[in-house]
Write a structure and sequence with these properties.
Layout lengths: L12 H6 L7 E13 L4 E6 L7 E5 L6 H6 L5 E10 L7 E12 L14 H6 L8 H23 L3 E2 L5 E2 L11 E2 L26 E3 L4 H11 L1 E9 L12 E10 L3 H22 L1 H16 L11 H10 L3 E4 H9 L2 H4 L15 H12 L3 E7 L15 E9 L3 E8 L4 H10 L8 H8 L5 E7 H9 L20
Helix pairs in contact: 4-6, 4-7, 4-14, 6-8
The protein binds adenosine-5'-triphosphate (ATP) and manganese (II) ion.
Manganese (II) ion binds next to strand 15.
Length: 486
Amino acid sequence: MDTRLPIFERPNVRKALEDSSLVGQTLTLRGWVRTKRENKNVVFINLNDGSTLKNIQIVADPTQHDDELFRKITVGASLAIEGKLVPSQGSGQAVEMEAAKIVLLGESPQDYAIQPKKHSLEFLREKAHMRFRTNTFGAVFRIRHALAFAVHQYFHQHGFFYLHTPIITGSDAEGAGEMFKVTTLPFDNPPRDEEGRIDFREDFFGKPTNLTVSGQLEGELGAMGLGLIYTFGPTFRAENSNTTRHLAEFWMIEPEMAFYDLQDNMELAEDFIRSLVKGVLRHCTEDLAFLDARAAEENNQKPQAERSTMGLLERLQFVAENAFARVTYTEAIEILLNSTPHKKKKFQYPIQWGIDLQSEHERYLVEKHFQKPVIVSDYPKDIKAFYMRQNDDGKTVAAMDVLFPGIGEIIGGSQREERYDKLRERMQAMHIPEEELWWYLETRKYGTVPHSGFGLGFERLVQFVTGMGNIRDVIPFPRYPNGAEF
Ligand code: ATP
Ligand code: MN
């Protein structure tokens, strides 16, 4: 066996299947048994090592190996196999391996959960520690990797610096939802101050702290010296939303750009997503083709009215090739007021200038009216965060949300309020404590510049690209209400 070969010279299944110069050579492959078929004269083992969706077929002569070994080669068992790579005699694969030596690395008893049949995603969520060994999750997580890598590549190529913002934050004014507290105080008997309130002066940081809901505020500080920055890290929201689009722990990409106005911000957001989609279409063809077929099968099982007209690959190509629609919030409300579902009272939530767009409204705009991704801008200031730049109309702010088919909001962003007085005024009106964000305000006092940024929920992007309906299936270990098992 080749264990003494330098690590990166050891071929894996992908290389064995793709590199024709290896045909005729003897090599060692390691992996997990996906299936085994046998008769008196020959044993066929399908081996997968995660490097690719495809399995390699191992052909073994049962008379050459001991019976005990073959009995233990069951679905899920792990093997190292030395053998010759030869052109395959069967159809279905170009090459196969003739096993000379087989070493059983780990047995897999009969109650192994991942049998060679279709398992429901719900079942696999309960076996999340094993689901990496399925075709679907192998494809999803290889694509997730490709997207994460492409994110860094995109920003690096365009002169952005990767800035690590804190995970533990001292401010709870980020304004993006409920937070998880971080403390070392004993919660059954915390120290109290004179008025009987919990005395955080005795806590680890000497003040209350939380897990961050966004790296934006700190990201802005970085942009005010580095120019173009982005963050890509975990964010936490303790909101009790049991939906297919919310996690309690998710990864967010947040670029922040000095000297960008809202138009520049939209241009970047659109170019960014479309580049990422183009990239996976180029580099993840095999995994995407598998997920496309999977999605088509699922789609066919839905009632006619709920079926999507485009397949997964078609949808990705469409996004890669077509410009996003752009409307202001005010125009979007007009469209919704004139829509058939509104007139027929089919929307659950009423429509009126000033409301926060609900998921049903966003979906109508994207899936029915425009039939493409939509960027909605200039929302009413009262439904948006304090840091968004106030427009001259006195009613709206320079916000933008990017809405995607099947997903809803994938990006939320804005041009930031760079005018010191306007920002302070807004913070006061919204009861944001100045003493907590004094450092944020100082960027507006010393050398302030127009700037913009946005947050892209990474898992929502992975959902769109893989066509997976539930966000819990695109992150290796999902965190959600009552869910933190693995
Ligand atoms: P939503 O309205 O969908 O709950 P939000 O308005 O709270 O989202 P933002 O605070 O604007 O979201 O966060 C920026 C992006 O982060 C969103 O566009 C979305 O892609 C993603 N996101 C927000 N909350 C979650 C969550 N709980 N789980 C996964 N992704 C999320
Ligand atoms: Mn938002």
